[in-house]
Write a structure and sequence with these properties.
- The complex is a heterodimer of chains A (112) and B (117).
- Chain A is an all-beta fold and 112 residues long.
- Chain A contains no helices and eleven strands.
- In chain A, β9 and β10 form a beta hairpin.
- Classes of the chains: A mainly beta (112), B mainly beta (117).
Chain lengths: 112, 117
């Protein structure tokens, strides 16, 4: 069964600091991995999409990495801002599969 | 910037009643999806829709659920006889092409919060 596990479940950081979120998956055969940001009560918003051949992708202060061999990904947030407070969700899809497998998300709280 | 819209934003219904959740996908998109998120849990795929038919559905999407594209702009999710456990946030999404295996961004709507009493 395709699974996506994220850690930590939640974290609190001070404004201006960096943090790294982890994602492990067992989706196979792997097609691509996405990171979404979900504000409370809102729909997920895409941050990055990476395929098998991509190791890293950035979107502003967000940098995602992918190790397809170990089936791990990370999302690094640089110089956090209060508006970064949200749930960050790792989403993986398999080849020839329309549906996305969602992780439970990491809730990030940025404090002034 | 074009966006996916959903109505209503909130819906309260009695158990056993039918509900229809509405979505207007981004206009040039061809693939449409419904997801649900029970409070405190992960987002779950329900169904994908292309060319006026279901492409794929999850085990959650049983006979109680149906989807329709009644006109050129709306995409609806109907729950025939709601149960307490159907209470969740329902998200509609759309993409230009196949959003799963293809490297294509799915754009999510703001969601409809359904509460079944």
């Amino acid at each position: 069964k395709n699974q996506v596990e994220q850690s930590p479940q939640s974290l609190i950081i001070l404004e201006g600091k960096n943090c790294t979120l982890q994602c492990n998956y067992t989706v196979s055969p792997f097609s691509n991995l996405r990171w979404y940001k979900q504000d409370t009560g809102r729909g997920p918003v895409s941050l990055t999409i990476m395929t098998f051949s991509e190791n890293t992708k950035s979107n502003g202060r967000y940098t995602a990495t992918l190790d397809a061999d170990t089936k791990q990904s990370s999302l690094h947030i640089t110089a956090s801002q209060l508006s970064d407070s949200a749930s960050y969700i790792c989403v993986v899809s398999a080849i020839d599969d329309y549906k996305l497998s969602f992780g439970a998300g990491t809730t990030v709280t940025v404090r002034a | 910037e074009p966006e996916v819209t959903q109505t209503p934003s909130h819906q309260v219904t009695q158990m056993g009643q039918e509900v229809i959740l509405r979505c207007v996908p981004i206009s040039n998109h061809l693939y449409f999806y419904w997801y649900r998120q029970i409070l405190g849990q992960k987002v779950e795929f329900l169904v994908s829709f292309y060319n006026n038919e279901i492409s794929e559905k999850s085990e959650i999407f049983d006979d109680q659920f149906s989807v329709e594209r009644p006109d050129g702009s709306n995409f609806t999710l109907k729950i025939r006889s709601t149960k307490l456990e159907d209470s969740a946030m329902y998200f509609c999404a759309s993409s230009e092409s196949s959003g799963g295996a293809a490297v294509e961004t799915q754009y999510f709507g703001p969601g409809t919060r359904l509460l079944v009493l």
